[in-house]
Amino acid sequence: MIAAASGEVLNFPILSALVILPLIGSIVVALLGKSRPEWIKLGALTSSVTTGALSLWLLGAFKSGEAGFQFVSQHLWISQWGISWHLGVDGISLFLVVLTGILFPLVIVGIDPHHNETSYFAWMLLLQAGVMGSFLALDLFLFFVMFEIVLVPMYFLIGGWGYDQRVYAATKFFLYTMAGSAFMLVGIIATVSLAQRDLGVVTFDLVRIAEGASFSTNAARWLFVSFAIAFAVKVPLFPFHTWLPDAHTQAPTGGSVILAGVLLKMGTYGFLRFGVYLFPQAAMWARPVLFTLAVIGIIYGAIAATMQRDLKRLVAYSSVAHLGFIVLGTFALTSQAVTGAAIQMVSHGVSTGALFCWWA
Amino acid sequence: MIAVVGAATALYAATVAVAQNDIKKVLAYSTVSQLGFMFLAIGSGAYVAAIFHMITHAFFKALLFLGSGSVIHGMHHEQDMRRMGALRKVMPITGFTFIIGWLAIAGVPPFAGFWSKDEILLYVYANNRGLYVVGLVTALLTAYYMTRQVIMVFYGKARWNDNSAEHGAHGEITPHESPRVMLIPLIVLAVLSILGGAMQLPFSKDLHFLEHWLAPVVEESEAYIGKSWAYQNKYLLLLVAIVVAVSGILISISVYSKSKFKVIEPKILEQAWNYDRAVSRVVGGPGAATFNLIAWIDANIVDGIVNGVGELIRSIAGSVRRVQSGFVRTYALLISFGAVAILAWFLLREFCCDRCSLR
Questions:
Q1: Most A CBs within 10 Å: which of B296, B305, B306, as the mutation test of the A interface?
Q2: Interatomic CA distance for residues B33 and B8, integer angstroms
Q3: Beta-carbon neighbour count of residue A255 at 10 Å?
Q4: Is B298 in contact with A304 (Cβ distance < 8 A)?
Q5: In Å, how far are A45, A177, A203 from A181, measured between CA atoms?
Q6: ipTM for the whole complex
């Protein structure tokens, strides 16, 4: 069923397009790259610019002031498990989608890899597809897939086009984030099985679980923690942040821009969309810890940033500090605070992305 | 609390400005001092007075800074007041407008600064008489150091060629008036400094234009002093302010122009009570060392734990790997051990079912 909000039917699956277009672009670039090298960048640019244009159109067509998800696109995928291709956008994800749509074309047009352009742009576009997917996914399984899809291109981008210690940094990034996500996987499966008792059916659908299922206090807290671990590593929250300085320093410029601008926001978005949406009371319970970690991150990140000699490392630590602010705002759980956090996500993406472009 | 901080700032900066020799440094510390006044006003609940002073201060401080810029330009980029003097004759318009700015900041009626400063002092008196005294002392010092500046720059003997041999490439300089593009803003600001007080004259409620304009925002929280002794005797306080300003000017004239008293400019004042140096030394020394330590801790200890976990897993995996030796005879041995163990389990279960708890 494809529909826009307010009953008006939009005959174009825009959200699916946002995810699939970069994917198609990635495949096209990968296949054509060897035979037509002059078209590589053009192809990549076309794909990402179209995606960007669609995201900007989405920004205009979005009806603000309406709660709930808009432009929802839902297709059954694995029916025994209730897994569907469920995409939707609301106020929080809208700006992240637009940020992604704008940042990727800029990175593709502005920064050239020194070798192997084909693979570079193919991985970039795959990365864009994954990021878009994770911002738009409303199905727990789909979100997990997208969350993990993001790791592979990033690993190759850092490892293949980075600086001296790129392999170490890439491996660390990959393993650390995946270890966190392992907890989330357990959490997702547990959530689904616990929700089955209330809902009667096995479903991975976020909206159904969030609105239909209730969890016992203890269970909700454990589940929240499992999700929180994954996002804490991704954000990154002190003390799970040490992969970030290495990843940022060793990544190629384009990789750094995307890492700082978009990937870190997946963690904070995840806190809002999964942590708070699914387990609000547990989120309240976890506040003191998260506040403490966020504030430590802010001050500690800033202090560590002050004395760095490597400029990229400095910006990496400053990202730790700024993302600490976002987490602080998210868990203050007032409307203004969450709005501020959402704005900070976008502004940090833009400003830190620009800072890293300095090295191009 | 805010009032105390404001008063302290005002007094601190005013004492420092007395001993500065760079024409712009005097004005810089003067600005800090006047901002202290504004915060003193805010702390005493006089929001309108604070904004009033902010506006008039904008007029005369901009005038003074642009005027000093004109002086520096005319003096071929010389900024040290000890090498100036008698510039009034060579730069008449700059001098005249600077003097208007001087009278405004010193708090001489009818210039703008007087009205705003008086309004502040009125509210401060109603709030805390100790702070009022500090405010008066600061006003005195303000008049004092500004008069000192005017005398050193525009009056007295022309000192600009006294050490011309030390100037190096400069040699003799001939100061001149600045071009019109610099003078016209000075004139505009001078007019504003003269007339600016009109937005909030204390004589009647109808003349409180600024207060009425700001009322929607500040009316609720503005301190009400209508019934205080200060308000009843506001014209007396007005007179006190005038006396303080004029005496500051006269003392300064007698020290710097008439040389009746010795010049007192202790070194500590010129060094701004060594506050800046102290801050730099703390931040540069132990501060930087602490921050370096934290950065080191993050890179080695926190990250060390992460890498340590990785190493631990590697070493465990390395040991466990040895089980997969590829040596089939070991596998056969382990299979036989396992078979014996399973057999033992079933046999023991059968024969110990009464007493043992393996069932």
A1: B306
A2: 9
A3: 32
A4: yes
A5: 31, 6, 20
A6: 0.77
CB of A312 within 8 A of CB of A248? yes
**Contacts of residue B295 in chain A, CB cutoff 8 Å?**
303-304, 306-308
**A307, B288: Cβ pair inside 8 Å?**
yes
Which of A175, A246, A307 is the closest to B292 by Cβ? Answer: A307
Asked if the C-beta of B317 comes within 8 angstroms of chain A's C-beta atoms, the answer is no
Contacts of residue A179, Cβ cutoff 8 Å, sequence gap at least 6: A233
Q: Which residue of B has its CA nearest to A233?
A: B306
B303 Cβ contact partners less than 8 Å away, ≥ 6 residues apart: A242, A246
From first to last of the 360 residues of chain A, give the pLDDT tens digit: 344 444 445 678 889 999 999 999 999 999 988 888 888 888 899 999 999 999 999 999 898 888 888 888 889 988 888 899 999 998 889 999 999 999 999 999 988 888 888 899 999 999 999 999 999 999 999 999 999 999 999 999 999 999 999 999 999 999 999 999 999 999 999 999 999 888 888 999 999 898 888 889 999 999 999 999 999 999 999 889 999 999 999 999 899 999 999 999 999 999 999 989 999 999 999 999 999 999 999 999 999 998 888 889 999 999 999 999 999 999 998 999 999 999 999 999 999 988 888 665
Is B122 buried (19+), middle (13-18) or exposed (0-12) by CB count in 10 A? buried
Minimum Cα–Cα distance from B284: chain A residue: A307
**Residue pairs between chains A and B whose CB atoms are closer than 8 Å:** 33
B303 and chain A in contact, CB less than 8 A: yes
Q: Does A339 touch chain B (CB under 8 A)?
A: no
Cα end-to-end distance, chain A, whole Å: 44
**B286: which chain A residues are within 8 Å (Cβ-Cβ)?**
none
Of A217, A250, A261, the closest CA to residue A357 belongs to A261
